[in-house]
Amino acid sequence: MSAEKQLSKTAYDQLDKDADRILQLIEVQMENLTMPQCPVFEEVLDTQMFGLSKEINFAVRLGLVDAQDGRDILDHLEVEVSKVHEAYMEKEKNQV
Amino acid sequence: MSAEKQLSKTAYDQLDKDADRILQLIEVQMENLTMPQCPVFEEVLDTQMFGLSKEINFAVRLGLVDAQDGRDILDHLEVEVSKVHEAYMEKEKNQV
User: Fold this and answer.
1) Cβ of B58 under 8 Å from any chain A Cβ?
2) Distance between CA B22 and CA B45 in Å, rounded?
3) Mutate to test the interface with B, among A9, A49, A55, A65 (most CBs of B within 10 A)
4) Domain B3-95 classification at class level
């Protein structure tokens, strides 16, 4: 594998890892926050998504990651976060 | 130049460009905000520094940028931002 292909693969791996980390952080927050609707939750999520988008944008500029793939990573993460959010809300509702 | 060296050079160039962009943004803010001491200013700066640190960290993980160089980019930017801030404060003081 060429050095550039290897770097591109590493870039994708790292971005996936970071997206997973954000999802885990959100899950932990959902479990531990009394109010997942609260602004702090939204702010943490926004900040993390912003950070990831910066990394993706940087990787795209270096030509290591395809721009559409980059958007897909963010979109996919948003869908996953929504799922976690909904699952938690459903659980809360059933407990009342 | 090898592909990896070329990518490393591009990574450094892009990070320098981003640091410059943040500094320019801060300068524009200083010129246009009535209250550069206000929390909005600090928040914009924090967010931008966070974004840049994410990019740097990403580049370091890919082995494209040396960890110490990455810290130096952030430190240097902080010094430059302080200078802009102080220069503005001095100007304001003299106008009163």
Assistant:
1) yes
2) 8
3) A55
4) mainly alpha
